[in-house]
Amino acid sequence: MQATESVHRAAPLKGWLDELLVVVLVIAALLLGWVVKGWVQGRSISFTSDDGALSLRYPADWLEQVDKDALLTVSDIRGEGSFKRTFSVATREMNPDFPLTPNDLIVTMSVRKAEELTAYRILSTELGAVDGIEASKVTYAYVTEPAGSFQQGIPVVVQAVDWVVILQGKAYTLTFAAKAENFAEEGSFHSILASVDFR
Amino acid sequence: MSVLVCCVCHRPLEDGVRTIGRRCYCEDHHAKVTRERGHFWQTGWVLVAALIGFVFLVVGIDTFAQPAPGGMLPLVAGIVMALVPAVMWLIFFYLQDRLEPEPKRYVIGIFILGALLASAVGMPLVNNVFQVKEWLYDSPVVQLVGGILVVGFIQEFLKYAAVRYTLFGSPEFDERIDGVIYGTAAGLGYATMLNIQYVVSNTGVDLSVGVIRMIVTALAQASFAGIVGYFLAQDKFEGRPAWWMPGGLALAAVLNGLFVFVRDLASVRGLQFNPWNALILATLVALIILVALFWLMRRANQATLAQS
To answer: Which of A4, A6, A130, B19 could, after both became Cys, cross-link A135 (CB 3.0–4.6 A)?
Structure first.
């Protein structure tokens, strides 16, 4: 039967070239996609304090928040989850008559935070450096309401770290906060910290 | 002694054997499959009525039961909502295979394979490796380009793989339309997992908005995969040039990216979220693709009939 043969004469599999082209196309598309991802994520915005003593860069897709207590507060408002990753930098003048170390500042800040934040707990304190300048680092956790007033969810456990640097009569506090379960993976915090430049 | 049976009703053919290709039909079924009729419209209207009924049912439950957000009811309802439209669309597409309905176990198997590939490969790649939510919404251009290159190609390749590396070489894949049937089954499996993820990540959903979104997502994913399946079948039966299949996959990926772009772009105007704009536009896009797909399916059926 001619008709029967014509239907079933179909090639069971096309040659390897078709298959190879499909795979090459998909790999090429994904590589291009990866390049776009890298380009978007690599873009950053520069911030310099009014006195020019501090500059840093933060991801371009993070949005600046109104915060009268800080030089700069930015949040990843497009990020997933009920708490958005946040970075802020605050400064205060030091009293030259009462010189304090970064560790002293951490103690006073911790007392204040214990009053302001729910279930505030210090997880660790250690010494380190920011832009090559000696700094104290305190890691802590607290509980807060989930972002978005329309969401009725369980409270969020936040993990945060403060880096405190004293330089030229000023104390700088750099704070990174994220949902506790994601905190360890926050590469963006390391990028911001690495971009900090004290002059 | 072998007995010829009708490939649709499987009754023995004692007299009046009719054939299309290698398949045998009884008089009734031969007349049925070769008759030009409003088959598409009949099943189409039944499906539309069923979907509208389903939407009203869900909206009714949402209105009268008023389930608390975050509770178990929206979650369970959402998962049911993810499955029901997929099954309805699957039946609709399956009924378009008039000449020789595919074995149901194969169609269901491809559906499950599509869902498994989505869950085990597609969603982890998109969400964890490419982390699209971290960068895709940077600008409309990035959203469109990234949506096509990453989301579109990953999803369409996995649906392609679900058919290409399983049933493509089997004797059951013996008609041009089989590519569309198996492709849509893979697409609906994929869509089901996307919809379940949508429900779970939103701790249940606004049932009224969610039900429409899920129906449209299922339709769109099925249509893109149907296009991939059509190109696969044409490649198998017509011996198309080497660029044919990559071209088909790229077309489906572009349509996929365009659909998601339209759906997301229209849902946000400034800071005001308006899901209905998105759904209306997305539905239009999906319906246009569906009509194109049915035109292709009709052509495939006619080509097979012309050879008989």
So the answer is: A130
For Cα atoms B245, B96, A7, give the angle at the middle one, nearest 5 degrees.
55
pLDDT per residue as tens digits for the range A88-119: 999 988 888 887 888 888 888 889 889 989 99
All structural domains of chain B with their residue ranges: 1-35, 38-306
Average pLDDT over residues A60-69: 83
- The two tokens of residue B107 are 């169609």
Cβ neighbours of A34 in B, within 8 Å: 130
Q: Which residue of B has its CA nearest to A81?
A: B201
Q: Does B243 touch chain A (CB under 8 A)?
A: yes
Interface predicted TM-score of the whole assembly (ipTM), two decimals? 0.80
| Minimum-distance CB partner of A30 among B153, B203, B235 | B153
B150, B127 Cβ separation under 8 angstroms:
no
Q: Look-up: residue for tokens 């501090």?
A: A54
DSSP A150: T
Residue B147's nearest CA partner among B159, B157, B158, B135 is: B135
Determine contact: B130 vs chain A, CB below 8 A.
yes
Average pLDDT rounded to a whole number, residues B216-231: 90
Tokens of B145: 């380009």
Number of Cβ within a 10 Å radius of residue B157: 25
> b or e along B60-83 (b: 16 or more beta carbons within 10 Å of the residue's beta carbon)?
ebbeeeebeeeeeebbebbbebbb
In chain A, which residues have their Cβ closer than 8 Å to the Cβ of B175? 7
Task: Supply the pLDDT for residue B47.
Answer: 78
pLDDT value of position B270? 41
Contact (CB<8Å) B153/A26: yes
Contact B308 A34 (CB under 8 A): no
Q: Name the residue ranges covered by the structural domains of chain A.
A: 2-38, 45-198
Q: How many Å apart are CA B227 and CA B245, to the nearest integer?
A: 11
Token digits of residue A127: 């010494």
Angstroms from A101 CA to nearest CA on chain B: 38
Mean pLDDT of chain B: 80
The answer to whether the CB of B211 falls within 8 A of the CB of B63 is no
Buried b (16+ CB within 10 A) or exposed e, A145-162: eebeeeeeeeebbbbbbb
Burial, B245: exposed, middle or buried (Cβ in 10 Å; 0-12, 13-18, 19+)?
buried
- Domain A45-198 in this protein, CATH class: alpha beta
Selecting from B68, B132, B174 the residue whose C-beta is nearest the C-beta of A8 gives B174
